[in-house]
Amino acid sequence: MSHLALRRVMIRLLHDPAFAAALHDDPPRALAGIALDADERGWLLAEPPAAWRTDPARPARVRAALAEEYPATLALDASRAETFFASTVFHAAVQARGSLALAFGDHLAGSDDPRLRVLARLERAIAEVRRAGRPRAAVSSVPERARWTLAPSARVVRVPLGGVALLAAVRAVAPLPPLGSADEPVLVLAPPGGGDVTLEPLAPALAALLERAARGADEAELVAEARRLGADPGEDAEIVAGLVADGLLVAAGC
Known about the structure:
- The chain has 254 residues and is mostly helical.
- It contains 13 helices and six strands.
- The chain has helices at 2-15, 17-25, 27-30, 38-45, 58-67, 71-76, 88-95, 100-108, 114-130, 163-171, 204-214, 219-228, 235-245, and strands at residues 147-150, 154-160, 183-189, 198-201, 217-218, 249-251.
- The protein has a three-stranded antiparallel sheet with strand order 5-1-6. It has a three-stranded antiparallel sheet with strand order 2-3-4, with helices on both faces.
- Helix 1 packs antiparallel against helix 7 and helix 8 (100-108) runs antiparallel to helix 9.
């Protein structure tokens, strides 16, 4: 499938002039690890770096589309977005056919500004659950020997305390609250049938249980985890059954 690898290299060249220059100056290093045949390498090397800049507005158009999913992050500081196409996360996402929107969030979350990191992580989670498949139908009880995982439409994100309030303040163009030193686990959830993604601070025990489920677990494992986190006998199984009924836990592999 080297033609797919070639196409992805070309996309990278169209967005990052530094990569085009590196290909010209040191082809083996620039193309290291990419499965191209001799002809394909020859086609790439036959083009001068300037050939990849015939549409200089292309990166700005793509960046503007990506920015629509990170309005709060970029309202605080738009400068980091300018370096996205030179970043390793951009090149890795293109070459591995990953999501550019999620890679953009990863890049923004690499900021030195802790507030920018928080906003980027929350908006990335929103972008991720929006891309999830349609929620599976909830069930009323836990089938015997079922193995569960967190629904694709849900994510647990840990940010510093005050992270959700910070996002709300940026959205409302209000004074920014401080961030705390402790973690604030947040449930990011895309509702069935569409609509706005919700962000809900979680109790630590519930967050830990959902994080355990995200790695895949059967009923007995989740009940035991609920008990370890403080649930009483009987209540532990009810908690797991309730998460299944609410659609937060779904059958793994389905």
